Amino acid sequence: MKQSRSLTLGAGCAVIASAMSITTHMVCGQMDAASTAVYNPYSKGILPSDLSSEMARVLREIDFIEAEAMRQWKALPPPTLTGNPPILQNTGVASVEILGKLMNFDKNISPFKNQACASCHMPYVAFSGPIPSVNLTMIAYPGSVHFRAGKRTAQRYTYAAYFPPLQYDAVQGLFFGGNFWDSRATGYLLRSPDAEQSQFPPVDPDEMGNPDTACVTYKLSLATYRPLFEEVWGKGSFDINWPAHTAQICATPIGATSLGGSATPVALSPADRTRSNQVYDHWAQSLNAYEHSEMVSPFTSKFDAYLKGNYTLTADEMAGYKLFRGKGNCNSCHLDGRSTAPLPSAPDSEDTGTTANVTPLFTCFGSANEGLPKNPRVAVYYEATPDSFGFTVNPEGFAYTDYGLGTFLRSGFGSAPNPNSTWRKFASSVDGQMQVSTARNSGLAPPQCPATEAPGPYFQKEFFHNGYIKSLKQLVHFYNTRDVYRFAVESGHCPAGTVEKVTCWPEPEVPQNLDMTTGKLGLTDQEENQIVAFLQTLSDGYTTPYPDIDTFTGACMSGGNASTQGNSTIISATSIHH
Amino acid sequence: MTCLRVYRLLLPLAVTIMVVGVRCSHSASSRAQIYAQILAPAKPASRVRITKGPELESVKDNDAIITWTSNNPGGSDQHFGVVHYGTDPNHLSETAKSPIRLNQNHSYTVFRVRLNGLKPQTTYYYTVDSMQGNGKSDGVKSTVAHFTNP
Lengths: 578, 150
Prior knowledge:
Strand order of the largest sheet of chain A: 2-3
CATH superfamily of the domain at 57-292 in chain A: Cytochrome c-like domain
Oligomer: heterodimer
Low-confidence stretches of chain A: 1-34, 341-345
Structural class of chain B: mainly beta
Strand order of the largest sheet of chain B: 6-5-8-9
Largest sheet of chain B: 4 strands, antiparallel
CATH superfamily of the domain at 50-148 in chain B: Immunoglobulins
Mean pLDDT of chain A: 91
CATH architecture of the domain at 50-148 in chain B: Sandwich
Order of helices and strands of chain A: EHEEHEEHHEEHHHHHHHEHEHHH
Shape of chain A: globular
Strand content of chain A: under 5%
Radius of gyration of chain A: 23 Å
Helix content of chain B: under 10%
């Protein structure tokens, strides 16, 4: 079977004009927001010059994968619903996973039909941010309203489905679980934080920006894959009496003054609202099934092969693994599944433990404040004025401070309501904490630019919640030397004679609760590189090609070195204060 | 359950060849079992002894870092290094604590605590301790040490 990618991609739409000059915006033949002016409160250089063309490129890739998912659906055998309780015999698992994939790459869910979940989460970067220039400049990704954007980096999907519901463990004195950097997707109802995570972006004003969760239900009712949804979740799922103006409301972004501030502008009867909520839960559970599947989280890395005896780590990878567990102390939070021998009660005994019979997830499901400096490039700082819909993303402007889990426990601005009042008292003890991501797939990149590290060819990623770090080398160096090269300055103001991110680390955005496990590890330059080599063994796709990893059609970057990668984009924080 | 998996080879000029035909499993059933990785706390050590330090790791302007190493105290993974300090060696009125995460694989634990808001050109006296996430002390004993801010 042969197919021209250019033809396929040409079926999509073209967004022409640079981000800095456009005043109207065509998306797939429809005017977005009735030709409203593009929201551009940003200082020069925050929006990358190729933003529109890159967003169009990602949309073409999304359409390509959506078409692939359609073929996968059509290739399924006829369904057989049998048993009691009724189960889709043989096809149930594949059906719900493919349904989730179809949802994930469906741009029609957004108000202007210009953003899918995948717009910020593409497979060739382990379902994290797919636009190198955005990763260098504005950090957060534009939403359906161009160019509203949020405050944090797009987290990788991979293995997010394995996080348990958020819980406070009184014995360990720690919070575990949840999804999102601030753990606000707790899983308190669906018992899956990953599923509940998928219910936030469709109605987040900085992301898809639907004005009502019922709009997602409405758009699913119009989707070409509606029959698959009904096959999985039941006929009659969409038997809802939609008010006359539903389409118009659902093409209006949340926050628009015309909606009057209602969270449920689609006027449904109580019964229909309940039915819509059920569909929204099934949206979440279908996406969870996809993210849990081997299409997203397949355990196919070199390290997985090593654990099975099917791969021999190179000398540098093995050295990095030992450092990861030893001097680097990385596995105190990024658990590697090893045994816990020797016990503290026998501290001098030999570690006789072998690799435990688990598939390690390289996270403790916890949270920590690693002391990242404030990154003045984050888009949200500039969004202190209303857009053409009358909505202001961040009235606090540059004064906004990201307290992460602490803000969530307080039900604070920019997070979500905390559903458990008993957690509230812990807020000050977790200020600044962000979720400990799995180290898996931190280095995953598309095949034509197979590294995240300069000189490459490499794919420019962004790391941590605010994208301050631009390479794995910098990430390890930060852990290693944060307190060695600490300076009481903001980013962009390192003293003469120092190099930011090499011999100067600006002060933490949130100084409270700073994790001191890290900050001075005593690693040499070579040892840092060996840990990077080990991290790269955690990228899926070694034993089996990673699904859809070859869909990247953008450009790789090259040149420079990993230590100073992206440093040319550092800007002065002070300039933004004014 | 099997499904159709599609492999593609990228070619120049953005042309894609699609090779169809490998049957594969979508199911998670073939995977190794995944265990929850919320570790239980390690058994607390019968005695926690400082094996190195405490000492001044670094001092700058109005902050300092005190560090020491002990045997692994066990107990909750969430631990705090605690520094009692002040300008009068007989009255250590201030307390600073910094979180660290115990590594249950390690026989030793390095504690590091930041002291913020220090006055310049001032001598500070301090002792150290460590405690579990619930505030229970590890019972570490250290003599009074001191440093002077630049």
